[in-house]
Write the structure tokens for this entry.
Amino acid sequence: MTRLKHALFVAFHYPPEASSSGVLRTLKYSRYLREFGWRVTVLTPQKDAFEVTDPALESQIPSSVRIIRTPFLNTKRHLAFRGAYPSLLALPDRWIGWWPWAVAAGKRLQLEDPFDILYSTSPHATAHLIAWRLARISGKPWVTDFRDPWVEDIAEPGDNSGPLYRRLNRYLEGRVIRRCSRVVASTSHLCDQLRSRYPDHSGKISTIFNGYDEADFASISPYGAGRNERMTITHAGNINAEFRDPRFLFRAMRLAADGGNLDLRRVCLRFIGGGPYTESADVRQSLAELRLEECVEFLPRVPYEQSLAELARADMLLLLQASSDTVGLVPAKLYEYLRAQKPVLALVPPGATADVLASTGGGWSVAPHDLAALSRVVGDAFRDWTTGALTACRADLQALRRFDRKLLTHELATMFDQLTSSPA
């Protein structure tokens, strides 16, 4: 019987963690790698590190995957005094306190059950520093996965973003890029960005896209239950004032309605798991001023499987991604939107997400602040819905096939095989 090779994953985001659709990338790799000759051990923090969880996601973890959960320190949670903490105690991020326990656990694993390759995925970048140390100790090849840029152009709210902090993080990023065996980026734009920044190492930087898992849609009707009584537009996941702000869509809806191109009595805009911003004064005031309260609903977060069913029940799906630092990113959620076979309205600047929509024919990408264009698209979509023509805007399944998670896992396995069949 052929021996399965052993991959050690260092990943903060792993079920039941569920704050971001990025958790699915690592979950699906661990789910399918065995089919391509690899068994997986995942090194991740203990469950109380996670602020948002979905226990149902754990049911997708194969029994063959070994999970090592370690203690941790969260600088912001455990070391802050009166809400403040020195930025150098959160370098590269506030999860650096996970490093000592994770490194110790990885060393024990290498002695007890040696691994053939290391794989680390960010955010959070601490995972790369853990894998860096374990790669030095073990001498094994190491693949780094950048789901997002390491140093964002716009810092997350509450995170440090001073010049010194950013310079040190950029230095650490460079050291990781130079030391690791291969770099994987989740989009071509991010791949090109890294290649441009590190031209001497561009040959080891490549792209493996995010995607969707065909198995997740096996029990979901491909086109939902038909047209709803009201045109239902659904957004799944958090909204916020920084880069997922729906207020421009609210204004576009009012503009389309005032122009006679949208009947608000026949529209339902639904936000599932929108988070605290849905209760903010800004959102509530906007709805009141535009007289949209009757056609906008805010619903609580639901488990992942149920969220897919909600996508299938919609007439159209909404994607919000407006900040300049997300131009090169494609959220994993988009691929699930497209596979749900519903038209997608994406409020995004020109970039990676708009490119995917254009290549699959799955809907419209509109510059987030182009009120006239957004109002026109909303009106056109409503007209198509009333005539039954909106379903023609579904993504081309053949074009979408390249984003199947199992095929993407095969790409990663091929990379692993190449690195372990020759010196790293």
Summary: DSSP finds 14 helices and 13 strands in the chain. The chain has a mean pLDDT of 92. The CA atoms of residues 360 and 396 lie 5 Å apart.
